[in-house]
């Protein structure tokens, strides 16, 4: 894992002191709310429905055991004993006071964490593949680049007052687990003809009010030139992105308005002034950061995850392994995905005691490392297959053993109207109702891979457009209704879901989705996942359920 | 979220406390209460304007932020002393908190196998 | 409002000449880009310093063509922050300094707040018009409260990556 040096640490400490002063100036009246708001947002602090919410950055979703313990401590000391892991691999605390926010940031800095740029119209926390470094299909660990991007984007003087927020995602593997086609900039690592690793740069993707799949602006940018190329993109966006209408201010609108060809020309022209400058990532810089992400000392073991499942002494354990443990690049090891989607658990929430336990388990079983996924689950990335039974028992005892990763009840849901000041409708109660409807884990396995995403408003924090089944909360004259889409996906074949039928109340939405699942089970061909069936037959057979349920 | 309100609708003024973000309502006594039931209900545009003007001083004085006027249901319950009720789901949630059971930080068993 | 140069309060010698006014024969004048466009020859031939107000939706190229590609024929360029959240002038500033090698004075006007001063300085501004009771003190705090920088911006500060490379090389030599 990346370790701060004194430069990183000093910057974060000085930033905490700066924010403490800004809070003091706000409380004294020297700063108005309008002036203060962007400052607090750039330190992750929102004002939500009931209190302040602090969003802490978990850069590219990687956490150490010590960091997880600090998150637990913050949850206990400053919040109500729990936190919420988000679809952007961050954590949010919901019950924060403005007065204590600087103390929390100071505590975070003691474990090399911060809340910098988790909000505001700046370059946000860079997201990546939660299986980085351990996925069998990976070309190179994307976290090396993600860390370089984290540093480059931190307090960037030119790009801290952009037209709108800016999100970058990177994957180092052909299977895209970072949704790079629905980000402002997506980076997909691959090799050129000479075998050199670099990036395909995708621009102008995004969800929200106007969902767009990103377009390739340059098929290959060598590592050395990545920062100068991105700086050129940012510069064009900062100059020409719309500032008159916040709903049209994202880069996707600019790319769409002038077309990718003209956008590319502007970027390439700007790039000629920026490349071959100090922005170039020197090979020694890359190597120095890469050293932080060197793999841990694995034992020489044998065996596969499938064998571990087949050989499990217990059917429940076997089911958990099949659902939650993924193949690792090193023999005899597995990637353990810990579901935060138990029945009645708000999706992505974990209590302080659960966080502490996970820290202990990570230390004991996973070389001290934990990851956060954009499906709002956690990962213990380096587990010996022989440890699976003991690890599972410990998770199970703490309510963390739900065997549903990637299945129908692994629902992605934003906080919605229960917490969020921008929401139209609640997300969590609907997620819980669906989880109860699909509580039978054997049936969930029978249904197979299926992603349901629920956003409480058009901001699409739960990425409903790319859910196999997407659900969007809308407000019709004070009534909470839900608009359902089918066929979205965020993988390497990214697609936006299609709306099926009018918006319906929550209980109808549950019936509808149960009906969709029944339809799928009835018409699927052997080996077909839900999304494959939708791709083959379209939405029409599913719409018939709609009438049946009406 | 400013909504279009009827000119004669019963309304209250709400905000968040600057220091901790807690939802508060303006009372008849000129204070801010976390309880909607204690809120002062006003029923005409001029009365709302006048009340807002007074509340703005507490915004300037850094006591509250995010002033808003919301419509309430005063009805017979108010006469019985229960005070006004929120009409929209959003305001009901602001007034009484999330509708879900919040996670409770219960101790978890730490397996004996861990050092 | 107080004008600061490199953190020190100074008097403003520049006379702003807007549309109907005649351009005085001598002394430094500051004109909007539009006026430079229409009266380019007269203004450029004047034997006194010339400054330009560049709106933040104009391209820097719109200005360079008027001075034969040499921004150093200007004594002052003034960029605008119509609202502090509107950050276009940061990009203009870096283009003016780093792409076009401008060495004259670069001034930030409009909604210039203390908490943005560090970014402005890093992007190449050396003058700001700052509405503050203690502008010099505010400047001093703002530009020093965060010492390290990750990005090369042409402001001359050694970046953190450069400092690290330096350390690495020294270690390499020692080894
Ligand atoms: S999608 Fe809307 S309701 Fe949900 S968290 Fe985002 S802004 Fe809030």
TrEMBL record, chain A:
Keywords: 4Fe-4S, Iron, Iron-sulfur, Metal-binding, Oxidoreductase. GO terms for biological process: sulfate assimilation. Residues 119-272, 410-546 form the Nitrite/sulphite reductase 4Fe-4S domain. It is an enzyme of class 1 (oxidoreductase). Its EC number is 1.8.1.2. Signal peptide: none annotated. Its cofactor is siroheme; [4Fe-4S] cluster. Pfam families: NIR_SIR, NIR_SIR_ferr. GO terms for cellular component: sulfite reductase complex (NADPH). Residues 52-109, 346-398 form the Nitrite/Sulfite reductase ferredoxin-like domain. GO terms for molecular function: 4 iron, 4 sulfur cluster binding; heme binding; metal ion binding; sulfite reductase (ferredoxin) activity; sulfite reductase (NADPH) activity. The keyword Oxidoreductase applies. The keyword Transferase does not apply. PANTHER family: SULFITE REDUCTASE [NADPH] SUBUNIT BETA (PTHR11493:SF47), SULFITE REDUCTASE [NADPH] SUBUNIT BETA-RELATED (PTHR11493). This is Sulfite reductase (NADPH) hemoprotein beta-component.
TrEMBL record, chain B:
Pfam families: DUF2849. It comes from the Bacteria. This is DUF2849 domain-containing protein. It comes from Roseospira goensis.
UniProtKB/TrEMBL annotation, chain C:
It comes from the Bacteria. This is Uncharacterized protein (DUF934 family).
């Amino acid at each position: 894992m990346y370790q701060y040096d004194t430069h990183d640490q000093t910057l974060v400490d000085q930033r905490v002191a700066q924010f403490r002063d800004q809070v003091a100036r706000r409380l004294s009246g020297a700063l108005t709310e309008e002036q203060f708001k962007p400052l607090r947002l750039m330190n992750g602090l929102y004002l939500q429905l009931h209190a302040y919410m602090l969003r802490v950055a978990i850069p590219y979703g990687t956490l150490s055991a010590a960091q997880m313990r600090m998150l637990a401590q913050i949850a206990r000391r400053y919040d109500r004993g729990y936190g919420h892991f988000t679809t952007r691999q961050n954590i949010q605390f919901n019950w924060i006071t403005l007065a204590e926010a600087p103390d929390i940031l100071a505590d975070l800095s003691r474990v090399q964490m911060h809340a910098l740029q988790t909000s505001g119209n700046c370059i946000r926390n860079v997201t990546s593949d939660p299986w980085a470094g351990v996925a069998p299909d990976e070309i190179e660990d994307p976290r090396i680049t993600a860390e370089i991007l984290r540093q480059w984007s931190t307090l960037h003087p030119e790009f801290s007052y952009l037209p709108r927020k800016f999100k970058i995602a990177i994957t180092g593997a052909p299977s895209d687990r970072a949704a790079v086609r629905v980000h402002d900039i997506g980076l997909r690592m691959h090799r050129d003809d000479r075998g050199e690793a670099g990036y395909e740069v995708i621009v102008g993707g995004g969800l929200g009010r106007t969902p767009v799949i990103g377009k390739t602006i340059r098929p290959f940018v060598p590592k050395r030139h990545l920062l100068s190329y991105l700086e050129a993109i940012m510069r064009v966006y900062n100059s020409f992105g719309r500032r008159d209408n916040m709903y049209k201010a994202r880069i996707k609108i600019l790319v769409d308005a002038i077309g990718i060809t003209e956008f590319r020309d502007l970027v390439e022209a700007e790039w000629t002034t920026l490349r071959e400058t100090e922005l170039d990532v020197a090979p020694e810089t890359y190597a120095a950061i890469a050293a932080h992400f060197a793999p841990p000392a694995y034992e020489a073991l044998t065996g596969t995850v499938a064998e571990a499942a087949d050989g499990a002494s217990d059917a429940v354990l076997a089911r958990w392994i099949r659902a939650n443990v993924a193949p690792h690049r090193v023999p005899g090891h597995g990637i353990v995905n810990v579901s935060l989607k138990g029945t009645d658990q708000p999706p992505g929430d974990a209590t302080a005691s659960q966080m502490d336990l996970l820290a202990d388990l990570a230390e004991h079983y996973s070389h001290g490392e934990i990851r956060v996924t954009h499906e709002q689950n956690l990962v213990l990335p380096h587990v010996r297959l022989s440890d699976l039974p003991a690890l599972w028992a410990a998770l199970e005892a703490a309510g963390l053993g739900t065997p549903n990763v990637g299945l129908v009840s692994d629902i992605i849901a934003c906080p919605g109207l229960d917490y969020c000041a921008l929401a139209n409708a609640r997300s969590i109660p609907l997620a819980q109702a669906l989880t109860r409807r699909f509580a039978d884990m054997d049936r969930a396995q029978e249904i197979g891979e299926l992603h349901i995403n629920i956003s409480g408003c058009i901001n699409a924090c739960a990425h409903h457009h790319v859910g196999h089944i997407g659900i969007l909360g809308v407000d019709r004259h004070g009534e909470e209704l839900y608009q359902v889409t089918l066929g979205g996906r965020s993988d390497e074949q990214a697609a936006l879901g299609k709306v099926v039928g009018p918006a319906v109340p929550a209980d109808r939405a549950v019936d509808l989705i149960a009906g969709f699942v029944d339809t799928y089970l009835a018409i699927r061909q052997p080996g077909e996942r839900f999304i494959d069936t939708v791709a083959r037959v379209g939405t029409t057979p599913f719409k018939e359920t709609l009438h049946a349920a009406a | 979220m400013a909504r279009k309100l009827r000119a004669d609708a019963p309304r209250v003024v709400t905000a968040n406390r600057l220091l901790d973000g807690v939802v508060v309502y303006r009372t008849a006594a000129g204070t801010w209460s976390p309880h909607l039931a204690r809120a002062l209900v006003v029923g005409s545009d001029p009365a709302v304007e006048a009340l807002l003007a007074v509340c703005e001083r507490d915004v300037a004085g850094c006591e509250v932020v995010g002033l808003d006027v919301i419509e309430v249901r005063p009805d017979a319950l108010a006469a019985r002393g229960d005070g006004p009720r929120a009409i929209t789901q959003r305001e009901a949630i602001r007034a009484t908190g999330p509708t879900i059971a919040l996670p409770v930080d219960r101790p978890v068993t730490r397996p004996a196998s861990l050092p | 409002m107080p004008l600061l140069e490199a953190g020190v309060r100074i008097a403003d010698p520049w006379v702003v000449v807007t549309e109907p006014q005649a351009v005085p024969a001598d002394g430094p004048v500051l004109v909007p880009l539009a006026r430079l466009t229409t009266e380019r020859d007269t203004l450029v031939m004047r034997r006194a310093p010339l400054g330009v107000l560049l709106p933040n939706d104009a391209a820097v190229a719109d200005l360079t063509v008027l001075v034969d590609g040499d921004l150093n024929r200007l004594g002052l360029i003034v960029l605008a922050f119509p609202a502090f959240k509107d950050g276009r002038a940061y990009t203009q500033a870096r283009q003016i300094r780093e792409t076009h090698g401008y060495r004259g004075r670069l001034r930030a006007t409009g909604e210039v707040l203390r908490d943005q001063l560090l970014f402005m300085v890093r992007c190449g501004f050396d003058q700001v018009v700052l509405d503050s009771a203690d502008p010099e003190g505010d400047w001093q705090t703002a530009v020093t409260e965060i010492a390290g920088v990750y990005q090369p911006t042409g402001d001359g500060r050694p970046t953190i990556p450069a400092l690290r490379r330096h350390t690495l090389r020294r270690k390499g030599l020692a080894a």
